[in-house]
Amino acid sequence: MEKGSGSGGTPFFENLGTFFRKCIFSVLSVGPIPNHIAFIMDGNRRYAKKRNLVEGAGHRAGFLALTSMLRYSYELGVKYVTIYAFSIENFKRRPEEVQSVMDLMQEKIEQLVKEDSILNHYGVRIHFIGNLKLLTAPARLAAERAMLVTAGNSKAVLSICVAYTSTNEIMHAVEESCVEKWGEIRELNARGVECGLTELEGYEKDEARHLINLTDIEKRLYMAVAPDPDIMIRTSGETRLSNFLLWQSQYCYLDSPSVLWPDIGFWHLLWAIMNFQRNYFYLEKKKKQL
Fold it and tell me: Which one of 42, 228, 230, 255 is the catalytic residue?
């Protein structure tokens, strides 16, 4: 009986909150709405330490905050959301902590793809971005399964950056571009094609300096699955990008609320979007100056 009576009020307040947000979003929609929001989820460990919680409790609280941010973003009509979940540099932490994060990651990934999950509710396709070979086998398998299960969703996209840094992403894209381009050259040589062959073989003479161009690299970036972010939100008051989306963030609005990630809420997101709208025309002008 207690369980039934307790759950009866929850849907009412949830529906009331949804209605309240819809009213605010309808006003907000008069201005430009970001197509892509990126989050650097900073402060989970400090949140736990500040409250004397056990190790890992901060990350669990952070997952609840993430669920809320996803719900608010998709309600507003934001199509792309990207989160910085785990850096390659984070693998340098204590092995016990890394393993704890990997276990939690596996658990939460499996929750995300359940039939009644927020991703399926909003029709979200999930991508895991980074060098997935660095993940533990169970976490990697969970990530691969999540991408497969949500491949048919097309209303929105969630990109989760794990085992990721921008420098690694760029290096990988350059390597892939080189491998493919030199494969083409070898194929031309094997066929004995004369057209343009002298130029291709003249690499050492700097005659082939344009063999690989910007487009070649950009289409091989991990984040080619999404447009450049319009807003990047980093909690805990930090303004550093920490090797996150360096290639893609030249013209995005950076917001740095002072709260730790588990404490981020609706009003922080609303404030970031309002500031984005205020700076929108300036940012668009800068893009056109390219």
Answer: 42
